[in-house]
């Protein structure tokens, strides 16, 4: 369930463009007006605004935004304004070019939480923008087990039907348990199962695993010392079986502790606000007993805070 | 360039259906009429005929064909009548379920000679028909180096632009040469390059290889004893750099020697007749000094021969 609020009567794209242009002109920028418009439009409406804006003013809306605003606020507004597939392509490209554990998460996330058709659209947008394929870039910038895991994840076109083969779930749960017990985390079969089976099938396999071996698979994927590959495997499994808990955890990590990880916070809010942010909010509350809006207000400020709160649907339209 | 001939005035789908129905009824089947209609319609026209047929007679055209005709003729007519993506999905599925060197070729061929968008459509058709993903099936039925090669090939969404990075071509040609010299044919980097780079980039890399190491890469991929994996790598490279020569060779192998490999012959003719069979014909002639139509007439007979010749565009409409 999405969180954004769209007014009952939506102005025409031409009207929205005119207001945005006003927000950009004169002394200083009217950030609140930018939020009042863009944070309250669906992806299709934002697309129509961008098209009308380019036609009317001969300049890309994203370019104008880039000139007028800055910092975390700019990043949130720009990412949100983009088409979902274009945004994911950009996030993936940034992640590929700057290798780190948290950037690795971005690739896993895109590979595992998008619908199959949407992931394909991301790959298309990637071609268009970067003149390379997503899997080509991921493969060229990774190696070893990480490559073995990430390349099929970003190339996947998982079957999305709900059919489950219980016999297969049983045999593959056993295979997974065997490999995990041997600590063969990069094993070909383990990676094959996780990267190619449908989400319904994998859920059945993980349930089977839990029943038969009396521990959830993710508990068996913990190690005493920090192991980035194991963390990646756990993230994949969480993305597949309970994306809302996964995203709630990314937000918790971004907010908790000293300082805020604005990049991660912005990413989750802008990519999920018109998908399932409502469910993520609930998962966050269940785990922390703190309302997400409250937590964000406490950890961010200014226009950046305002856009996030607006995307959460907590401002007054 | 396609070979099929479509009459200047094409009957309506309803008229075609009526004629087909006539061909099926009464004593014996009128095979020539079936060929006269189906072998002379484009993919879109065949699709329209199938839709009209199902609406009018409450039965799938493919089912009626299956009831009325048989053997190699049936297989050719049915494969040809299908949508290209549906046909490829079926060919891939048959290949996956019956592992052999020649079936391996089918998967390589589909992965490497289809346009990126078309390969995606094949994966979509595969979901619909088999309730599994193509890569899932390929991964589950293969292992070792073959899996490492085939899974990314059937999951690829290669960039199709013509941009070439010459520096990259140089460094990757060197890397390929290094691995080939070490006989490390299943090396991760070698497979990464071949399965993810765009065809334009790969062509530049292979040219660079030829220039710098004074031998075409495929010559360096030959071994004294038969090696199926090396043969697969050579086929991939041929599919990418000169698909018409690759297909001409598949046809040669199918026709030459004792007996005919009808499966391979039918596959190439039905999948390429509305794509590039004309160019394949030329490549065949160049290599054998025999006209492809002549070779097929000499090696096949009856209705099967007639449909192949019709798809080659050599019959009188």
From TrEMBL, chains A, B:
Domain of life the protein comes from: Eukaryota
Q: What is the species of this protein? A: Zingiber officinale (Ginger)
A UniProt-annotated Pfam family: Annexin
Any one GO molecular function term: calcium-dependent phospholipid binding
* Keywords for this protein: Annexin, Calcium, Calcium/phospholipid-binding, Metal-binding, Repeat
| Identification of the protein by name | Annexin
Q: Does the keyword Acetylation apply?
A: no
Got a GO cellular component term for this one? Answer: plasma membrane
**Record InterPro entries:** Annexin_repeat (IPR018502), Annexin_repeat_CS (IPR018252)
GO biological process annotation, one example: response to salt stress
């Amino acid at each position: 369930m999405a969180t954004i609020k769209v007014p009952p009567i939506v102005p025409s794209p031409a009207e929205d463009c005119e207001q945005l242009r006003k927000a950009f002109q004169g002394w200083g920028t009217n950030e609140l007006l930018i939020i009042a418009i863009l944070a309250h439009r669906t992806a299709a409406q934002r697309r129509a605004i961008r098209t009308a804006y380019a036609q009317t003013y001969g300049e890309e809306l994203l370019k104008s935004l880039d000139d007028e605003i800055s910092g975390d606020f700019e990043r949130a507004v720009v990412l949100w304004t983009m088409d979902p597939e274009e945004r994911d392509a950009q996030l993936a490209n940034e992640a590929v070019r700057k290798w780190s554990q948290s950037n690795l998460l971005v690739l896993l996330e895109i590979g595992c939480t998008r619908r199959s058709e949407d992931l394909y659209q991301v790959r298309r947008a990637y071609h268009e923008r970067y003149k390379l394929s997503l899997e080509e870039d991921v493969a060229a910038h990774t190696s070893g087990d990480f490559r073995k895991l990430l390349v099929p994840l970003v190339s996947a076109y998982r079957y999305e039907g709900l059919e489950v083969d219980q016999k297969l779930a049983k045999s593959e749960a056993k295979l997974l348990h065997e490999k995990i017990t041997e600590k063969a985390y990069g094993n070909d079969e383990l990676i094959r199962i996780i990267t190619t089976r449908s989400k319904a099938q994998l859920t059945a396999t993980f349930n089977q695993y839990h029943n038969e071996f009396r521990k959830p698979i993710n508990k068996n994927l913990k190690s005493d010392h920090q192991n980035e590959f194991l963390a990646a495997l756990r993230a994949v499994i969480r993305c597949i079986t309970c994306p809302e808990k996964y995203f709630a955890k990314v937000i918790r990590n971004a907010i908790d502790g000293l300082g805020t990880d604005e990049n991660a916070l912005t990413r989750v809010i802008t990519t999920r606000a018109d998908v399932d942010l409502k469910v993520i909010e609930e998962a966050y509350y269940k785990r922390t007993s703190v309302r997400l809006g409250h937590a964000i207000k406490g950890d961010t400020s200014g226009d950046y805070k305002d856009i996030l709160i607006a995307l959460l649907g907590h401002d007054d339209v």
